[in-house]
Each structure stands twice: as structure tokens, then as C-alpha cells.
Amino acid sequence: MSSHREAPEISKDPVADNTDVYAFVSPDKPDTVTLIANFIPFQNPFGGPNFYEFGDDVLYQIHISNSGTGKADISYQFRFRAEIRNKKTFLYNTGPITSIKDPAWNRPQYYSVTRVERGRSRVLARNLAAPPVNVGVRGTPDYAKLARQGIHTIGTNRKVFAGQRADGFFADLGSIFDLGTLRPFQMAHLIPSAAAMGVNGLQGSNVHTIALQVPIRDLTRDGTRPTDVLDPKSVIGVYASASRQSSRILDDQLGIPVWHGPYKQVSRLGNPLFNEVIVPMADKDRWNVLPPHLDKQFAQYVTKPELGGLLPVLYPGVFPRLAAYKKPRADLAAILLTGIPKGVVPGFQNYTGPVQADLLRLNVAVPPSDSPNPLGLVAGDAAGFPNGRRVFDDVVTVELRAVAGLTIPLVDPSFTPDDAAGAIKDGTSNTNADYLSWFPYLGNPAGGYQSKPGRPAA
User: Fold this and answer.
1) Which residues pair with 214 in a beta bridge?
2) Residue 404: CB partners within 8 Å, gap ≥ 6?
3) Which of 200, 416, 426, 434 sits at a 20 to 30 Å CA gap from 442?
4) What is the pLDDT along the chain (458 residues), one digit of tens a residue?
5) CB–CB of 52/133 below 8 Å?
6) What angle do CA 44, 50, 53 make, to 5 degrees?
7) Single pTM value for the model
8) Measured between alpha carbons, how far is 232 from 433 in angstroms, rounded to an integer?
């Protein structure tokens, strides 16, 4: 979860695996939007000496759809290259790394940023340095400083960062994948046990983050900064992807596979949990290689979600109204595939048009909240998920409650949700480094020396 190991094939290729996508109006710079795409799930902080890094052979992209077609109108492309400074040592660093230019760092990584708008490419930056991973108190004694040095300004009022971060997503993975158990409600499960607090399955895990902060006008269809929430031009759709070249050949001299040919998408992500828990296993790999504007073929899994049918079975007597509801889930189709039209939520919309596509939709005319609520729109905070997604939004709880029927009355006022729909959750919160109140907003990654291995239960 969110999209950590969400499909059979991409789970074998973690360096190209999208884990989460975020898009929000920057709270400290409300004339900008921050776009974040995370990759490489479940990073063990002490996974050396070959620590985690972006793939030199992967094309990473963050896409913007602003024309109502579900297609990418603007794409930001990121390409990486790593160097080895000292070819006679196995060490990642030969001494303390005190700056991102420190020669003691033996495997630095650099990247370029290219903007593609309707087929026209423009390189925004080259040879930007990514910070190292958080090795420990000796190898990276002031990691926060290294991370700050990894924030680059490209042009006016535009920032970019690419490097390791603490995983900001939180979910009780061990419980929910054990036959859909939710620890706060497991006493009501078909196979009951005593209630207990949720356990964050991402605790101690790091990810690799690509974060971009740009003026709102860079992303809208007419290059303006909309102020009317009900203006269709105020809504953008966002998704991220990773692509590899189409063929791979083992180079006998180098001893590694070398990629050739045109780039082909191998992973993508818009809304959290879409491929994870909506798309059936037999279709997951195919979903990953298709563009969002072809998602109409997966709409049947949204309007009749498997999890919605499982909840009444796994929790007998808890969701009788959900069990009796047989209409297609138009509420989920609006949230996940088209955006919410005008008139559904008073004074709000993030509708991108009738094309069904898995996009994270953001209405850029909605200002940051003075009192943000991690439950976002369903809690009255229109600046939060599913209007974009902030790093602290509790998307698991929001989507569980939506699937459980809490959002059905938005499109079908005759339906009254089960009492449990408004209380269901997985009982977790962020237990990694605190989120930042400034770019890139995700906390500093866990350090290798500071972390302790877990103790697996019997």
C-alpha cells in the first residue's frame, strides 16, 4: 500500500516502482503547487554498502493533464546518472560526508530536469546533485544540512529536490493484508480477536522522492492563476510514471544488463490505492503500462469494488446497508475517475470532464487550509484529499470510509450509511520523522546507524 508492491511485475523492479503521488497548493507559498512522486518502497535504512538510489536506466516523470482529455499535456522528466569516484574501494563513503560535493562520498548521483509541453521539450536544469542517503551519525553527521543542499532553484520561484526521504505514508499493512483485518475493529471480524491499536507497517522505512514546486500558472491550461473554485480551468490532473527502454541485453564486458530502444511505461500512479485494492490481480500489470485516458475499461472495478463486497462478509452484521446496496458506485467513480462535479459538494468541484482516468485531481483555486484536517474533503477541509493530496492526509481512512459507503449520499441521498462507515479506520498515524512545513515537506530519512532491525513475530 499505497502502491508499495501493488502489482506482480513491478514488485520485482522496486527502483521503478511508484509508491505515492502528492499534489497540493504549497501552504507556505500559495502561488505555487508542490508535486511529489515517491519511488523505491520499503527501504531499509542500513541497506549498505550499496545503498538505495534512483535508477540511471529509468525515466521518471510527473505528468499534468489540464485539457480534460486525461492525457498528459505537461510532463516533467527526470534522468539520473551515478558516478564512482574511487574505483578501488567498496565503500559508499570513505569518511564523513559534510556537503553534497564532498569527495568522501564515493557514489554521487546527478540528474537533469526536462519539461515537455504538448510535444515540445525544454531542458530546465542539468547536473543537479542529489543528496546521499542517511548513512548514520558518522557518515552523514548533519543530514538535514545535506538535504537542504539538495534543494535546487531552477528559474524564478521554482524548486526541485530528488533524494531520500522518510516514507510519509502510513498504514497497518500487516493487519489489512491478513484477511482484511482492521486492528481497531478486529473484535468484529469474521475471525475475531481482541481490539488493539494499529501498527504502521511503514515505520522506519525510507523512499526516494522527486519533488517539484512551480507557480500555479505553469500548470493551468491558459497559463493563469485561477481564483474561482468553480471555474473548470482551475482543475488539473496529476500522475507519475516510471519507464524503461523496451529491450535489455546482458553486456558481457560490463557484467550488467544494458537497455536499448524506446522508453515504455512500466509503472504509474495517480490516486493512492487504485491499482493496489481496486484492480484485480490479473489486470494489475496491464494497468501499469497503460495511460490513464484508457481507464474506462477498469471502471467496472470502481463502480463495484471488491472491497465493498468483502466488508459485510468479513464484518458480519456491521455493514447491513452497504450489503443491501446494489447500485453502481457513482460516488467512487466521481472521486477516482472524473473528479467531483459542481453541485455535489457545495462551493467545490475538481471535475476534469467525462473522460474516465485515474488522476489525482487538484483544484488550484482552493487555498491552503488554516486548520488542515488529515481527513480532507470528507471532514470539510477542501484543501485535502481527494482534492489533490497533502503529505499528511490520512488517505487509507478516507478511502476505507468511502468504500464502506460514507460518500454514497453525495450522489444518492436516499442512502443512509451504516454507523460503522464513519468510524472505520486502520488506526495508524505517521511514526516516521515529522513532516516539514517547508519544501520538500517529507521528513528526513531514518539513518542506518540510528535504526534498529525489527523483531519478527512467530
Assistant:
1) 33
2) 308, 311, 319, 322, 417, 418, 420, 421, 424
3) 426
4) 578 988 899 999 999 999 999 999 999 999 999 999 999 999 999 999 999 999 999 999 999 999 999 999 999 999 999 999 999 999 999 999 999 999 999 999 999 999 999 889 999 999 999 999 999 999 999 999 999 999 999 988 999 999 999 999 999 999 989 998 988 889 999 999 988 888 999 999 999 999 999 999 999 999 999 999 999 999 999 999 999 998 878 777 777 778 788 999 999 999 999 999 999 999 999 999 999 999 999 999 999 999 999 999 999 999 999 999 999 999 999 999 999 999 999 999 999 999 999 999 999 999 999 999 999 999 999 999 999 999 999 999 999 999 999 999 999 999 999 999 999 998 999 999 999 999 999 999 999 999 887 755 54
5) yes
6) 75
7) 0.96
8) 37
d(CA 321, CA 443): 41
Q: What is the radius of gyration, based on Cα positions, of the chain? A: 22
Q: What angle do CA 264, 337, 178 make, to 5 degrees?
A: 80
Rounded CA gap, 115 and 34, in Å? 15
**Do the bridges between strand 360-363 and strand 256-269 make them parallel or antiparallel, or are there none, so unpaired?**
unpaired
Burial of 145 per CB tally in 10 Å (0-12, 13-18, 19+): middle
> Please, are residues 399 and 407 in contact by the beta-carbon 8 Å criterion?
no
Residue matched to cell numbers 542506518: 448
Residues 6+ apart with CB under 8 A from 114: 76, 77, 78, 79, 121, 122, 123, 124
Per the structure block, which three cell numbers stand in for 294?
A: 484508457
Any bridge partners for residue 122, and if so which? 115
Count of CB atoms situated within 10 Å of the CB of 124: 17
Contact 183, 228 (CB under 8 A): no
- For the chain, the straight-line distance linking the first and the last C-alpha, in angstroms and rounded, comes to 23
How is residue 373 written as a grid cell?
484536517
Name the 3-class secondary structure at 242: strand
**Three-state DSSP class for 270?**
coil
